[in-house]
Amino acid sequence: MLTALIGLGIFGTVLLLMYACSTAYRVMAPRGTDRAIERVQSWSSSVEAAPFEIVRKDSLSDIPWLNDLLKRVKRLQVLKELHQQADCRTPLGVFILVAVLLALIGLSLILSMRQTFIFAVLLGTLLGAIPYCYLLWRKSQRLAMFERQLPEALELVARALRAGHAFSVGLKMVGEEASDPIGKEFRRVFDEVSMGVALQQALDNMTHRVDSVDLRFFTTSVLVQRETGGNLAEIIDSLAGLIRQRFELQLKVKALSAEGRISAVILLGLPFVVGALLFKTSPDYMGLLFTDPIGRNFATIGSIMMVVGAVMMKRMVNIKV
């Protein structure tokens, strides 16, 4: 078992090394006139072979066979949406390969130390979840920035409507004057509408790229106004004011729940701090957790209970407004 896991770890390392070499070759390859001519010729030949498409095709990996494999796996749809919402330029295939490699390294490392298989699986799962946690962090940071910019962007659209411009022109103004991420998203909606995509479809695509409740309110109000009529500028202005009030209420709730969040951090960090101090003062006493079978079982059970407790405390302090 240990030999097979070490072999899998070596295979994953070699695979990542080959991917890094291919990426470095593409970056360092000459980009002169000859290569430009070859690209134009290849593009023209592809146009003659197949009809031209304006639909954007997302690449999940720079490796062709891995890209085809990831597109066929339907269960990766959640990861695809998360990768898109995080607006990460690194292909999704890199995150999947890194996650598999980290999981194999953690599993092989713990088994080589003659620990329990459950503890090895737990550590391998935690290491393999690092790329997923990174995508979640990027998504939360981007979403927080987007929601802070949304009221000002809606007010800009409302002012453009009062000045006599069309709704699409208001989207264009936000895309040109606002910073990312909201400027990029509104500019993309304007580009899709300009290329012939229906406004409803373009707004729905933006709601898939940005998982924001406030943005769904905006798209719903715009679509309802187009069907029933009314003053769109006043609707958007009132919606911007409502979003500002919700944002202020969220800040108040965050301040009131600060004690619970700090308590959760202390409770999660206290076992590690106490364990490190005991290991420094009495290494033989703490060493039983890693050398004795009963101690390893207790360490595994305690780690699982800490993970469950962290999830429960996160849900307790996560108050939705």
The secondary structure category is mainly alpha
Shape: flat
Number of strands: 0
Total helix count? Answer: 15
Query: How helical, in percent, are the residues?
Result: over 70%
Low-confidence stretches: 30-34, 46-55
For the terminal residues, how far apart are their CA atoms? Answer: 50 Å
Could you say what the CATH architecture of the largest domain is? Up-down Bundle
- Sheet with the most strands, sense and barrel status: none
* Number of structural domains: 3
SSE topology string = HHHHHHHHHHHHHHH
Our Rg estimate from Cα atoms comes to: 26 Å
The average pLDDT value, as a whole number, equals: 78
CATH hierarchy, class of the largest domain: Mainly Alpha
Précis, in short:
The chain is mainly alpha-helical and 321 residues long. It has helices at residues 2-28, 33-49, 64-72, 77-86, 92-112, 117-128, 130-162, 167-177, 182-194, 199-209, 213-228, 232-256, 258-281, 283-291, 293-317.
Describe the structure.
- The structure is a single chain.
- With 321 residues, the chain is an all-alpha fold.
- The chain has three domains: 79 residues, no CATH class; 99 residues, Receptor-associated Protein (Up-down Bundle), CATH 1.20.81; 61 residues, no CATH class.
- Helices cover 82% and strands 0% of the residues.
- The longest helix is centred in the middle third of the chain and has 33 residues.
- The chain is flat, with a radius of gyration of 26 Å.
- The two termini are 50 Å apart.
- 18% of the residues are buried.
